[in-house]
Each structure stands twice: as C-alpha cells, then as structure tokens.
Amino acid sequence: MKNSPITSLDRERITVDLDQEGYCLLPKLFDAEQARALGASVMHAAGDRVQQSLEKIGLGRGALWRLTGPSPVPLDAWRDALYALLAPIANKWNTAMGLESVYPAKLGEFQPEQPAGSQSRSHVTLSRLREDDYQALHQSTNGEAAFPLQLIILLSEPGADFQGGEFVMTEQRPRMQSRPMVVPLRLGDAALITVATRPFKGSKGYYRVNMKHAVSRVRWGERLGLELLLHDVPEVYAND
Predict the structure, then answer these.
(1) How does pLDDT run across 4-20, given as a tens digit for each residue?
(2) Please, is 155 exposed, middle or buried when counting C-beta atoms within 10 Å of its C-beta (0-12, 13-18, 19+)?
(3) What does the pLDDT average to over 122-137?
(4) What's the predicted TM-score (pTM) here?
(5) For 159, phi and psi rounded to 5 degrees?
(6) Is the pLDDT of residue 240 over 60?
(7) Peptide bond connecting 74 to the previous residue in cis, omega within 30 degrees of 0
(8) What is the DSSP string of the chain?
(9) b/e string for 181-214 if b means 16 or more Cβ within 10 A?
(10) Homologous superfamily (CATH) for 5-234
(11) Average pLDDT over the chain, rounded to whole?
C-alpha cells in the first residue's frame, strides 16, 4: 500500500455522485489482501487504545475505537490527499447553501482555523460488530468545525466473515419523509459520504438536506469497518 489509492480517484464522477445521492461508492479501492492488511494494522493500533461500548454511548451495540492522535500508516497521508480532492466540492456546497466559510486547499491550512485550537486530534474510528451488534443512525460532527465529507471502508467480506451489517444512510428533505439508502459494500470497498448536511437543488433553488448513517444488525460473524474523518476532534473527546 505504498501508492495512495486516493490519487487515482475521479473528482468529476465523485462530484456528480455526491451531488445526486450524498455519497459516492468506491468499489475495490483495495484488493482483498490490502484490505485484510489494513484491518490488521488498524486493529493492532487499536490494541492499546480505550475500547468503547456503542451501547454505553447510545450508538447501538458493539465495540468502537477512536484512534485520535497519530494514525496508523498510511492513514494520515490519505487524509491529506482526500482533503485536497474534496475541498473544492465542499466549497461548492457551502456556496450553494449560502455559507460564507471557505475551506483552504490543504488540510494543514484548515486545522489551525478550527476554534481557538480546540480541535487538535486527527480522528479515525474503527468499529467491530459481532452477532446482533449494530451501529445506530448518527452524524460524525464532533467539534465545531466539521468537514462535510468523510471516507468509510469495509474491512470484512459479507457472506464469508459476516452476514447482515449493511451500511445504510437516511436523507431528510424539508417537509418530506426520510429517504433510506443502502450502500452496497464488499471487502475493500469504500465510500465517500456526507457527514451531516448537503445541498439539494429543488425547483426553487438549493436547500439543505440532513443525512445520517448507520450499520444494520449483524446476523452472524464479525464486521470490521473504518471511518476516516477529515476534521480534527477536541483534545478531550466528548461522546454524544
């Protein structure tokens, strides 16, 4: 995994998919060997971190590790590359939603602008879900300055390592019922998703829609998933 998979991504296709659906599927971003190696690397890094119970923090059932601080190689490099790729899309979204804030071109230039240096820890989340575990609908907006897009990666194979455990999203448009979406993921697949809100173009212009994501109940086996955020979190992490 010396070569970053991010450099080969098509920004034009990503922009179209994100504008239309609020997510962009990246099938086979890693082959099976790479995905297994990444899962082993992150699990090793999580070994000396505090394991959280999803049930105790009101986010479902299962185990969660928040890998704040230095991330396992090569995740920090991926964050830099992803941010550079997605910042123009995020700025386009802000303009469409009437927001004045502008994301700089590089991740290193974005972090110092977060409120009074209060967000200073890079953020990778590893989830391990076993039989009857699930992750409830949520938004990854911890801290005041949240970048609007994030990457998720599936590190287990449906049908072989686990069954169930589908990655799902909901979209709430004004005065409409929530729209559910299932994002089909296999081992090594990834997706770029909306963290919380995005613009949607209606008949009278753009308006904001609210999005959440979750993982359905695992029926058997073990599911490993990774969430890579592009904004830092507070030094003292508040679980909400």
Answers:
(1) 788 889 999 999 999 99
(2) buried
(3) 91
(4) 0.89
(5) 85, -20
(6) no
(7) yes
(8) --S-GGGG--HHHHHHHHHHHSEEEETTSS-HHHHHHHHHHHHHHHTTSPEEETTTTTSEESEEEE--SSPSTTHHHHHHHHHHHHHHHHHHHHHHTT------SSHHHHGGGSGGG-EEE--EEEEEEETT-EEEEE----SSS--SEEEEEE-S-BTTTEEE--EEEEEE-TTSPPEEEEE---TT-EEEEESSEEEEEETTEEEEEEEEEEEPPEEEEEEEEEEEESS-EESSPPP-
(9) bebebebbbbbbbbbbbbbbeeeeeeebbebbbb
(10) q2cbj1_9rhob like domain (2.60.120.620)
(11) 86
> Rounded to the nearest 10 degrees, how much is the dihedral formed by the CA atoms of 233, 123, 29, 160?
-120
pLDDT in tens, 83-113: 999 999 999 999 999 998 899 999 888 865 5
Share of the chain above pLDDT 90, in %: 60
User: pLDDT of 142-159, one tens digit each?
Assistant: 655 689 999 999 999 999
**What are phi and psi for residue 52, nearest 5 degrees?**
-105, 150
Whole-angstrom distance, CA of residue 240 vs CA of residue 59? 9
Number of Cβ within 10 Å of residue 97's Cβ equals: 16
- The domain spans of the chain are 5-234
Please report, for residues 39, 88, 120, 127, 177, the alpha-carbon distance to residue 226 in angstroms, rounded to integers and kept in the order given: 8, 24, 20, 6, 29
- Calpha distance 98→95 (Å, rounded): 5
Closest C-alpha to 4, from 60, 112, 76, 64: 76
Confidence (pLDDT) at 67: 79
